Recover the amino acids of this structure.
């Protein structure tokens, strides 16, 4: 506390540090993933490991994201925007969804970032030394992101009306 005027200032520094480091790790995973296989799977694995290694920071971020200081909620939201924009830039660089308007691409990336941010609490609640549970959870997150990406491939800017079973979409 000697280095910060108040707890909000300390929290802002923590959010910034976590964001910068994780954005770098995920960008590296997306770049390496092109050569080594599934970018989605590699990104989920990197995120999973980072959350587990930074448990206390993520407990703090998870609790502040939904409550606590307005300043910290806004900082976390701003960091989500940074993640979203960087991912959209990487998708453009990789020629993913080349015909998709930028606003739609950013919406898709926002869904991915929000999904993974919400996954942090599940990762934190995972009991230690449970490799099968960890593998199942990782696979579940990979599949969630694959659903988002497959939906994005079929996304049209103009609303479409269709039915899936008895559900009108």
């Amino acid at each position: 506390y000697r280095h910060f005027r108040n707890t909000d200032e300390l929290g802002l520094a923590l959010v910034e540090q976590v964001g910068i480091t994780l954005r770098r790790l995920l960008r590296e995973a997306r770049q390496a993933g092109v050569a080594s296989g599934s970018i989605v799977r590699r990104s989920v694995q990197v995120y999973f490991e980072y959350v587990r290694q930074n448990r206390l920071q993520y407990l703090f971020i998870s609790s502040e994201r939904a409550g606590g200081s307005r300043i910290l909620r806004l900082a976390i939201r701003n960091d989500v925007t940074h993640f979203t924009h960087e991912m959209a830039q990487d998708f453009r660089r990789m020629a993913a969804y080349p015909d998709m308007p930028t606003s739609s691409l950013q919406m898709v990336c926002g869904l991915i970032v929000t999904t993974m941010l919400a996954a942090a609490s599940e990762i934190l609640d995972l009991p230690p030394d449970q490799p099968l549970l960890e593998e199942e959870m990782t696979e579940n997150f990979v599949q969630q992101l694959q659903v988002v990406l497959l939906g994005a491939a079929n996304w049209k800017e103009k609303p479409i009306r269709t039915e899936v079973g008895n559900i009108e979409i």
Observations:
- Helices lie at 7-36, 39-53, 55-66, 70-93, 102-125, 131-153.
- DSSP finds six helices and two strands in the chain.
- The beta strands are 163-164, 167-168.
